[in-house]
From TrEMBL:
Species in which this protein is naturally found: Acetobacter conturbans
Domain of life: Bacteria
Pfam families recorded: Isochorismatase
UniProt KW keywords: Hydrolase
PANTHER family according to UniProt: ISOCHORISMATASE FAMILY PROTEIN YECD, PEROXYUREIDOACRYLATE/UREIDOACRYLATE AMIDOHYDROLASE-RELATED
SUPFAM superfamilies, sorted: Isochorismatase-like hydrolases
KW Lyase (keyword) present: no
InterPro entries recorded: Isochorismatase-like_dom, Isochorismatase-like_hydrls, Isochorismatase-like_sf
Lineage: Bacteria, Pseudomonadati, Pseudomonadota, Alphaproteobacteria, Acetobacterales
Sequence ranges assigned to domain Isochorismatase-like in this UniProt record: 10-174
UniProt name for this protein: Isochorismatase family protein
């Protein structure tokens, strides 16, 4: 679905841009997304007093054993730390998840609805897992969903392409960050 509008009460959700994922193994694709489009969206949402949700992952759902974890044993001490470029602010909503999506087993839905949020713009990594799962869950929770396709990436290009072409159009609207910013309202000081 093409990008047509952004609701007045829209939140930005940034998925898994944390040291343990972005820096292991480091990829230029992720760095490019972070340093340009994600940061531009974050700055713009903050300037317009719209909620910014920073999501990190601290493991997997309890009891899940059917697949091996990328990291065996305990996570490194700074695994869940957001990358410095995100510059977390006191007004940001911080969500730590243990599933692919940011809504399952967290209070994110309640926190957003308490703020009157009706739409979410989703960015981050990886397109075919964390971003897609979060988009599916947001859709199921009744939020209008917008996906900033130039502000997400996946180390598996085929997974990224499949999500963008076949899954995202069924969940909401897709667009480029610049177009989202053009349509983005301002709520004034929060």
């Amino acid at each position: 679905m093409a990008l047509t509008m952004i609701d007045p009460n829209t939140a930005l959700i940034v998925v898994d841009l944390q040291k343990g994922i972005v820096e292991s193994p480091p990829t230029e694709t992720v760095r490019g997304v972070v340093e340009t489009t994600c940061n531009l969206l974050i700055r713009t949402f903050r300037e317009r007093a719209l909620p910014v949700v920073l999501v990190n992952v601290a493991g997997r759902a309890p009891g899940r054993t059917e697949t091996a974890s990328r990291i065996s044993g305990d996570f490194p001490e700074d695994f869940t730390d957001f990358i410095p470029e995100l510059d977390p602010q006191p007004g940001d909503i911080i969500v730590t998840k243990r599933t692919w999506g940011a809504f399952a087993s967290t209070d994110l839905e309640a926190r957003l609805k308490a703020r009157g949020v009706t739409q979410v713009v989703i960015t981050g990594v990886a397109t075919g897992t964390g971003v897609e799962a979060t988009a599916r869950q947001a859709y199921e929770a009744g939020f209008n969903v917008t996906l900033a396709v130039d502000a997400m990436t996946d180390p598996r290009p085929d997974a990224h392409d499949y999500s963008v072409r076949h899954v995202f159009p069924r969940l909401g609207e897709t667009g480029m960050s610049a177009d989202i910013i053009t349509l983005l309202p301002s709520r004034g000081a929060a």
